UniProtKB/TrEMBL annotation:
This is Uncharacterized conserved protein YndB, AHSA1/START domain. InterPro entries: ASHA1/2-like_C, START-like_dom_sf. Belongs to the AHA1 family. It holds the Pfam family AHSA1. It comes from Mucilaginibacter pineti. The lineage of its organism: Bacteria, Pseudomonadati, Bacteroidota, Sphingobacteriia, Sphingobacteriales. Residues 16-138 form the Activator of Hsp90 ATPase homologue 1/2-like C-terminal domain.
Length: 142
């Protein structure tokens, strides 16, 4: 089983929605709870977000059958509206999300430090699935 090294993982999506809507859907808790899950048997029943440098966020991710849940949380280290979000997770891993507007299309590139428990492929697949859910939510609501 390949586990995390020092090489960050990147996932990407092209969202057919303007940057202002993409930013709103990414940062507002009422939207986060609608898209922040990797599969249909999971959901995000709670989200709290203060999207500014020094602000904190927490999203509860839970199996719909109630068998497991965890809080995904951290502190923002750099936030520039409609451009970039960087944060540190509680375990010290770092994440950077770039938002690039091109007319009514927004490119999202998310780069994160892997954890050491799960295989790299599983982590990349999970984060990509969440980003794909975001794309679906943003395009349906823009």
């Amino acid at each position: 089983m390949e586990t995390a090294g020092k090489t960050p993982i990147t996932v990407q999506a092209t969202v057919n929605a303007p940057i202002a809507k993409v930013w709103e859907f990414w940062t507002k808790p009422e939207h986060i709870t609608q898209w922040c899950n990797a599969s249909d048997d999971w959901h995000a029943p709670f989200a709290d977000n203060d999207p500014r440098t020094g602000g904190k966020f927490k999203t509860t991710m839970a199996a719909k059958d109630g068998s497991f849940s965890f809080d995904f949380e951290g502190v923002y280290t750099n936030v520039r509206d409609n451009e970039v979000i960087e944060y540190a997770l509680g375990d010290g891993r770092e994440v950077k999300i770039d938002f690039v507007a091109n007319g009514d299309v927004t490119e999202i590139t998310e780069t994160f430090d892997p954890e050491t428990t799960n295989p790299i492929e599983m982590q990349q697949g999970g984060w990509q699935a969440i980003l794909n859910n975001f794309k679906k939510h943003a395009e349906a609501n823009a």
